[in-house]
Amino acid sequence: MAFLSIEKLVKTFGTQTTVKGVDLAVERGEFVTLLGPSGCGKTTILRMVAGFETATSGTIRIDGKDVTDLKPNQRNIGMVFQAYALFPNMSVADNIAFGLKVAKKSSAEIAARVKEMLELIKLPQLGERYPYQLSGGQQQRVALARALAVKPQILLLDEPLSALDAKIRISLRDEIRAVQRSLGITTIFVTHDQEEALSMSDRICVMNEGHIEQLGTPFEVYNYPTTRFVASFVGTLNIVNGKVADSATGKLLVDGQEIVTSRSLNGASTGDALSLALRPEALTMGRANGLSNNLDGTIDEVHFLGSVVRIRVKFKDSAISLDTFNKPHLPPPERGQPVTVNFGREDILVLDGAPN
Amino acid sequence: MKQSRIAPWIGVIFGAIYFLVPLIATFEFSLRMERGRYSFEAYRIVLGDPNFQASFGYSAFIAVCTIIVGVALVVPTAYVVQLKLPKLRPVIEFLTLLPLVIPAIVIVFGYLRMYNSSSWLPLTGSARGTDVLLTFSYVTLALPYMYRSVDTGLRAIDVRTLTEAAQSLGSSWPRILLTVILPNVRVAVLSGSFLTFAIVIGEFTMASLLNRPAFGPYLQLIGANRAYEPAALAIIAFAITWACMGLINLFGAMGQQTQRR
Ligand SMILES: Nc1ncnc2c1ncn2[C@@H]1O[C@H](COP(=O)(O)OP(=O)(O)O)[C@@H](O)[C@H]1O
Ligand SMILES: [Mg+2]
Q: Would you say the C-alpha torsion B214, B220, B223, B226 has a positive or negative sign?
């Protein structure tokens, strides 16, 4: 049985159901991310696991024990919040020691543990500082140390990086992951940033409007999205409207042009409208022969992003973006120019749900 | 441009004259006890008067009790309202403002009816009982100031997140209040306390009607029977009030230093 198991979890606020029957099993030592747009219920799920909200129905088990109705201070869960939640009146060392003092550890044990935690977060010199004397990144590291000092069974992080600068955010990502790995602590991480989720997680749980859209490894979720929502939310994905021309051979029509997919059509029959997804990195400019697909369009926009040039190609009623590497000796194409885009048969993802 | 600067200055000067002239006049008068020269004789007499010392000591003691009871009542209340019952905030604010609307004399007559020696809780039956009643009535009187001050302090910190952080670290409610919330609203509690102190030291109506040997009735007694000493007393009372205000500002500035983010 999974270390943390959430079953049929529901949370209703007044008339609004925020969490609509979520099932999630997290293995011991696993790093699972809840990824979804703002307001989809990620925080609410985390708060129910922590005990700050009571579940309307469903159960939460930690290591086989039902904790659904336990008070937060009886759960042994470490939590890191988005806002810096360090106690402003206490030094860094006292913040880290707080939970240990509550647990009535001996002062020698507390001192040793605080020192150990300060080293873990690579701030061994800052024990005497006060929170207001630290940068945002340092504060979040102290918050992490404070949560981990009491050796919680589960670590919960609610968008801990979203208040930080881009650079610090990326370095702290790696650091959080390294600490999590070294302690082998079961972790749920909440974010609305797909890049963060993809780079950190063992598994990603993509959420939308209170339910789970897809649960899988970053590789699976990115490459094999099962729903239109996941496809559009995870990564920059092109979604085009297509029509099944021949369900038996995988022939599709996009913009009146015929393409072929080698993937399953999810039971769609000839004449059905479909949503198709294409990753920018799967597309190449130019005409290809053989088993590849070609689509003719015109260049709509050219974004120079540095090492990458992102080009938007327009068809009659849809558009897609594709990335090319910047080549100094080759100036980028110009707007309005006709262009052919090619991609492999296996690069077409057929999504659930009819096009809008 | 020039015009618009003159107007505020006129206001400031007018206000200063309005407040300062009587103050200076009182001070000057308080120095004239000895014929023909300025001296602090009136202050010497007042400060040396055992009744002054006793009544001031009594009032200071009651003030400290009032502050302790007030803090114990207001901090948890404001905390719970902010955390769990934000909808009740307007109701609580209205309640805490009532003492400003209801005259002290009305409150104290109410008390005398409720707690007289033949009532179900005869607090006025003994001196200690009356002291308790006086303390509680001062808590009521200071409530608007104490509540507002503490509430403002609580709003300046993220009460909910701090509480939840402490809870997830295993902390119980009393511990959260004492070790996390109270130290972070220390400045607000202190400024509420100094206001309370200033109010209690100068209060007359309740102390007089409950017949307790407080500083307010003493001021009144001296004022009715002496010439120079009341002026000296007024200046002393004024200095105490200003010392309280100064301390509020001092602690306010210190608080800003330690709680800057
Ligand atoms: N205490 C609450 N009372 C009422 N509604 C709430 C409460 N907490 C959250 N909600 C609602 O639940 C929805 C989901 O919130 P949340 O779980 O914070 O989303 P996320 O963390 O994914 O952005 C929001 O629409 C929010 O308004
Ligand atoms: Mg959230």
A: negative
> Taking the domains of chain B in order of start, what are their residue ranges?
51-260
Task: Please say whether the structural domain A4-232 has been given the CATH code 3.40.50.300.
Answer: yes
| CA pair distance A147, A97, nearest whole angstrom | 10
Query: Which of A48, A54, A98 should be substituted to probe chain B, the one whose Cβ sees the most B Cβ atoms within 10 Å?
Result: A98
Q: Phi first, then psi: give them for residue A174, nearest 5 degrees.
A: -60, -35
Q: What is the domain partition of chain A in residue ranges?
A: 4-232, 236-351
- The class (CATH top level) of A236-351 is mainly beta
For residue B35, give every residue at least 6 positions away whose Cβ sits within 8 Å of its Cβ, in sequence order, or none.
Answer: none
**Nearest ligand to the CA atom of A83:** 2
Interface of B with A (CB under 8 A): 157-158, 161-162, 164-172, 175, 179-180, 183-184, 186, 258-261
Q: How many residues does chain B have?
A: 261
- Alpha helices (H) in chain B, listed in sequence order: 2-30, 41-48, 50-83, 89-101, 104-115, 127-156, 159-168, 173-175, 182-184, 186-202, 205-209, 215-225, 229-259
Q: Which residues pair with A12 in a beta bridge?
A: A17
A214 lines ligand 1 (CB under 6 A): no
Residue A98 to residue B169, Cβ atoms within 8 A: yes
- ipTM confidence: 0.79
Give the tokens for residue A64.
Answer: 């086989």
- State in words which class domain B51-260 has: mainly alpha
- pLDDT per residue over B110-169, tens digit each? 888 888 888 888 887 788 888 999 999 999 999 999 999 999 999 989 999 999 999 999
- Count the neighbouring beta carbons within 10 Å of the beta carbon of residue A260: 15
